[in-house]
Amino acid sequence: MLAEPKLKTLKQLAETLTKEELIWVNGYLAGLMTQGSTEPLEQVMSSISKISILFGTDTGNSKKLATGFATTAKRKGITVKLSGLDQYRLSDLQKEEYLIVIISTHGEGEPPAAAKKFYDHIHQNTFSLDKLNYGVLALGDTAYPLFCKAGEDVDARLQTLGAKRIIALQKCDTDYEADANQWFENILISLQAGVVPKHIQPIAQRKPGIKKNYTGTVLTKINLNGKGSAKETYHLEIAAEELAYQPGDSIGIVPENPQEIVEAITALVNIDPSKKLLHKEVEISVLDLLKKKLNIVYLPERVVKKYAAIVQQEIPVTRIDLLNLLKIYPVKDIAQFEEVVTILEPITPRLYSISSSLKTHEGEVHITVARNCFTINDEKYHGLCSNYLAFLNENSTFEFYVHKNSQFKIPAAEKDIIMIGPGTGIAPFRAFIEERDATGASGKSWLFFGDQHFETDFLYQTEIQSYLQTGSLTRANVAFSRDQREKVYVQHKMLAQAEEFYRWLEAGAYVYVCGAKEPMSADVEKALLQIIMNTGNKTQEQAEDYLNQLKEEGRYEKDVY
Amino acid sequence: MLPTAICLLPTLKLYSKISIVQNLSPIEKVKRESDGLRGSVRESLTDEVTGAIREDDQAVIKFHGMYQQDDRDQREERAEKKLDRLYSFMIRLRLPGGFLTPAQWIATDEIAGENSTGIIKITTRQTIQLHGLIKSKIKPTIQAFNKAKLDSIATCGDINRNVVCSSHPLQSPIHDQVFAYADKISEMLMPKTRAYYEIWLDEEKIADKKEEEDPLYQDRYLPRKFKIAIAIPPNNDVDVFANDIGLIAVIENNKLLGFNFAIGGGLSATHGSKETYPRLASLIGFVAGEEKTLKAIYETLTIQRDFGNRSDRKLARLKYTLDKYGVAWFKEELEKRIGFKFETARPYSFTDRKDFYGWHKSFQGLWYYTVFIENGRVLDDKTIKLRSALLEVAKTGKANFRFTCNQNLILSDIQEADKVVVQTILKNYKLTQHTEGASSIRKNSMACVALNTCPLALAEGQRYLPSLISKIEPLLAKNNLQEEDIIIRMTGCPNGCARPYVAEIGLVGTAYGRYNLHVGGDHQGERLNKLFKENLDEVAILQELDILFSGFKSNRKAGERFGDFVFRLQEN
Lengths: 561, 572
Ligand code: SRM
Ligand SMILES: Cc1cc2nc3c(=O)[nH]c(=O)nc-3n(C[C@H](O)[C@H](O)[C@H](O)COP(=O)(O)OP(=O)(O)OC[C@H]3O[C@@H](n4cnc5c(N)ncnc54)[C@H](O)[C@@H]3O)c2cc1C
Ligand SMILES: Cc1cc2nc3c(=O)[nH]c(=O)nc-3n(C[C@H](O)[C@H](O)[C@H](O)COP(=O)(O)O)c2cc1C
Ligand code: SF4
Fold this sequence. Notes:
The complex is a heterodimer.
Chain A: H1 4-16, H2 19-35, E1 41-43, E2 50-56, H3 61-75, E3 79-84, E4 98-104, H4 116-124, E5 133-139, H5 149-160, E6 164-165, E7 170-172, H6 177-193, E8 195-197, E9 214-223, E10 233-239, E11 250-253, H7 259-269, E12 276-279, E13 282-285, H8 286-293, H9 301-311, H10 322-328, H11 334-343, E14 350-353, E15 364-370, E16 373-376, E17 379-382, H12 384-390, E18 397-403, E19 417-420, H13 427-439, E20 445-451, H14 454-457, H15 461-470, E21 475-480, H16 490-496, H17 498-506, E22 510-515, H18 517-535, H19 540-552, E23 556-560
Parallel strand pairs in A: 2-3, 2-4, 4-5, 5-6, 5-7, 19-20, 19-22, 20-21, 22-23
Antiparallel strand pairs in A: 1-8, 9-10, 9-18, 10-15, 11-14, 11-18, 12-13, 16-17
Helix pairs in contact in A: 2-6, 7-8, 7-10, 9-11, 16-18, 17-18, 18-19
Chain B: H1 4-7, H2 9-18, H3 26-32, H4 41-46, H5 55-62, E1 66-70, H6 75-80, E2 87-92, E3 99-100, H7 102-115, E4 120-122, E5 128-133, H8 135-147, E6 164-165, H9 175-188, H10 195-201, E7 228-231, E8 245-252, E9 255-263, E10 282-288, H11 290-307, H12 318-325, H13 327-338, E11 358-361, E12 367-371, E13 377-378, H14 386-396, E14 400-403, E15 409-414, H15 419-428, H16 431-437, H17 440-443, E16 445-447, H18 465-478, E17 488-491, E18 505-511, E19 514-519, E20 530-536, H19 538-555, H20 562-571
Parallel strand pairs in B: 6-7, 7-8, 16-17, 17-18
Antiparallel strand pairs in B: 1-2, 2-5, 3-14, 4-5, 4-13, 8-9, 9-10, 11-12, 12-15, 14-15, 18-19, 19-20
Helix pairs in contact in B: 7-8, 7-14, 9-11, 11-13, 14-15, 18-19
The structure holds siroheme, flavin-adenine dinucleotide, flavin mononucleotide (FMN) and iron/sulfur cluster.
């Protein structure tokens, strides 16, 4: 490929180089390739032999990548310190020299709960990190408006604090493997060569890969709550082709906006709903765009600000529906409305824990959806996606994808499991139990469930009863908060069984918590600590260590929202 | 001559250990192995994932006055929702003679509101039931009742049930004396086990099981339920002949001489089974004095204990034992056990089975107001606030509460001076209007619980009869019979809980919306009615009644009652 004179020069040079120098050149060339830049790289030191890899994860993807990368690096002779951001001693940060951060984004562009302490620490304090060289790998999902926001923030902040970026921020979509591995390879090369690029340019964004999307057909929809319940929880059985998932995963659904709201908008601005607009390089009708693609309810403040700029009116910065904005602060004409359309963000996907096992329900995925309900000025409203699902008819179809959770997984068959899942938190555990029932797993299992009323809100009651009868479920305790004067929750049931609970822990049981983050998962954690302290005769600190140990062993997993 | 059975008595006992044991009905085993009616009730109560209790315990708790039930209306829907049946418990109080102090009524009202459906149901046996108690509410309910000095011991199960007694003190100066018998009989026939107190009232376990040895019930109790009633003629409001033992007070010159003693009444039948039938009690003689009376009652139970059928529960009531061995044999055996002979039955006469609605004054000068409570359901609804009204009366502390076997309530023992207070409350809540305004036929009606709680119901009972009566009323009016006292009773199945077989018009459920029509019972409860037409729907019921009413109007003899008229027709 190279013309003879060039090749000759290269060969001549190569012959004179030591092994170390060769590696350096290798890194130099790799840098050239990935960054498309001919800027010279700066040599930092001969070779780097020690790095820290920190991960901030919610559903385990970042951890999986971090662990994999750590293994590879170790094999290459590099000493690696691997830690979750939640376990990381923040005071160590200023002592670090080479740091790789792998962090995902959750909520609305927020860092994962486990990374919050670290995230706040670097953002709320000012200190110098001029000894630090770093790289950030961000995990996210392009379906969200704030793609990889947490990673971006960390990357930018470390630089502000004086650290040197040794490799450009890499943002990964949900099919992150290929991008991440390429990035790791590049780092390894650079590290071994002991170089960092002098001027950094971002790695060219790879064209987003095709995410696996499924078309689901609703086979069955049942409101699991009995007559008189304050709640509506829908059990949906959905069929799809070539389904692949594991218990513990969830599915992501992009809900549609209600037709009547979309129609009210098009009527208000007097735009032809069938008019085609260009959206992400594809032609689509205004109706479909507003119904299926763009978020038009409860707009984030940043969108409201942009709207104010377009219509050139003073609008208080608050969350508001597009329809109301248009009514109160009308657009001038259709053209201005079309401009507004361009600032709207995509409808964010909602996740629902999978409540079935493929081993029991081939070709099906089940979910357990609580119809979200909130009141504003005494008027009752419903959440977009859960309401959309609540009104789906049998045989109707919708799109979804599988969101893999690499941490919230059933352990080996002989391990005991404790599942704490009040409300819709029961969902993954129905999948766990089904899976273990189908495989005849020998480990014991213990379920804690809770809701408002025994009579009407005991989700999957008859299934749980029969699993108890057949032994696929060893024990079950249920807490119904409103059946008596004093509130009783799952954590109270745990405490009432403290001795047995601790015995299970000591015997190596895995603990899973799913459902509401606040206050449930926090209260459950407090109860856990109390059980460890009181029954295990430990101080607060020892109990915390015990729990951390469980976390490290993957024996305390949460999937809370 | 003695039946062979009696000559072989010792052998028979031995036999029962060897061969008969094999055919014992499953319930017999449960009773015997229940450790004095304890079973595994405690464990059942702590099982969080079900509102039910274990099957054997369901039999055990009946002896503690409770039935496990489920909302039959919701069965299918709940199964689809993956929800278990909506189990709950019905609790029935032991109220010999059907009496509550105002404080006890207040307690009951509170408990009903707190733990049950909120409806207080007055039964056809002069007590009250609460429905819809979920498992976790049983214990608090019993404890709260206990605080009010009330219990539910032995109101269900194979044991003597609530003892009923003519309810209106107006009836006779000796009412108090007779009424006291109800309590004494009930006490005498209570089981000796402390299980009730241990399980529900957290009493400490007894150390020595000998303390609760039970010479009457032993460990097998009776083969079947057992019912006792006391009537004060001329009113047969208790339907004395529908009971296993019926005592008819014999009074001379305002003195209680003793009781005519009748045995073997019982009403239940099973559709399509000739072996089962309603039967009125047979009068076997007169007995005087408390000691003898109690003894005769006690030993009637021991005979039934020893000879009653323990393999087929359908044939286990005293009436079948009696018909199997013969009344004469039974009387002899009883006289042997009690050690004295019955005197010949004294003359008596029943004229009615009525409740004395409205205000009445007793010979002592105390006032009584009988409130009409349709099918015994005390609740607040759109039309009338019975529960609130009665609670308010109770809160004045001026009236006792008595229940009648016609499912009504008597505000009783009210001082002359307090009458106006009670009357004002009754007026304000329109209870007087409600009672006085109800038609004769409605006031003479009864229906059993049936759907949605009774597991045995084939058709509606109390939920349906009121609307059917609204359609019968015009038929009566058309024939100018609206003032006629005609006793009409409906049950959702042939078990006969509202005693339809001794009504002038009896409607016995056969399937949803279908009833057998029985007619020809007398007004005072001394004659069973007869099956007239089978499996009628509403239209057919109304048609048949219309024909009977117009026939009655045209062809009745002077003063002839509807039941007697139809009976005369049937006889011809
Ligand atoms: C509440 C009441 C009817 C009412 O609306 O008032 C009633 C209600 C029931 N009766 Fe009764 N019986 C009631 C008076 C009667 C009577 C009338 C009487 O005793 O004067 C009879 C007919 C007389 C007799 O016993 O022969 C009666 C004959 C039955 C029978 C048939 C017994 C038999 O000999 O076969 C059953 C079924 C059984 O025992 O197997 C039964 C069973 C039942 C049960 C407990 C159903 C069950 O076994 O699960 C019903 C509960 C329904 C509910 O949800 O409350 N009930 N039952 C009465 C309560 C009386 C009490 O306070 O103790
Ligand atoms: C990993 C994971 C697993 C999950 N698993 C399950 C599951 O198994 N089952 C389940 O039911 N849920 C589950 N969820 C929650 C689910 O994803 C959704 O968050 C939930 O269904 C609510 O979505 P929604 O579109 O119905 O409500 P949204 O429309 O998103 O509304 C949510 C909330 O936002 C506020 N809001 C919205 N619009 C307005 C407005 N106009 N004005 C004021 N306030 C407003 C309200 O407080 C409302 O309650 C899970 C979430 C996660 C992250
Ligand atoms: C509740 C939730 C909210 C999310 N919000 C965002 C977001 O705002 N922006 C984004 O880029 N990705 C978002 N994601 C996608 C995740 O970052 C992505 O799935 C990532 O692979 C998760 O990595 P982890 O398992 O290490 O936490 C969200 C995921 C979930 C479950
Ligand atoms: S008569 Fe039949 S339906 Fe009515 S309460 Fe009695 S057992 Fe139930």
